[in-house]
Amino acid sequence: MILKADGENLAHAAALACELWPGHTPNELLAELEQLPQSESVVFLDVEDGAPAGFAQCQLRHDYVEGTHSSPVGYLEGIYVREEYRGRGIARALLRACEGWAEEQGCTEFASDCELDNVGSIAFHLGSGFTEANRIVCFTKRLGEEA
Q: Which residue, 112, 25, 21, 100, is CA-closest to 66?
């Protein structure tokens, strides 16, 4: 069952988000999710037999989104399904919930991204109707240090 995450359910979504982004604590991610403006973002939670199985976070992006031609654009910020629940269509159902929310907000386009080496995510996106817009490699450099 997919529901909009709020209150206690938002804490379950934050715990799942830690499995997707392990460099954070559940409290850090919960605080981050709680600070998202509700008019600009939403978190969906999938619950199977009373247990949190997956989550998706999406929001509106008003800045330029690679490959799009409108604004705002619905943007899938993160999606995750616990391994034991995979292969049941949960991720696609979470994605559909996000897309439906974006349409309700007046969006005509929906976008996402993933790391270049995340072949599972690339396959999910392509299998869900996304088309690849671009590939980039990002660079950083510390200033004031000898190279």
A: 112
- Write the pLDDT tens digit of every residue in 18-40: 999 999 998 999 999 998 888 89
- Domain span including residue 10: 2-127
Find the CATH number of the domain harbouring 8. 3.40.630.30
Residue 132 lies in a domain: no
- Say which residues have a Cβ less than 8 Å from residue 16's Cβ, sequence separation at least 6: 45, 52, 54, 55, 80, 82
pTM (predicted TM-score): 0.90
Of the listed ranges 6-10, 96-100, 115-119, the least confidently predicted one is 6-10
Strand-pair partners of 48: 51
User: Can you say whether residue 66 is alpha, beta or left, with left for phi > 0 and alpha for psi between -120 and 50 degrees?
Assistant: beta
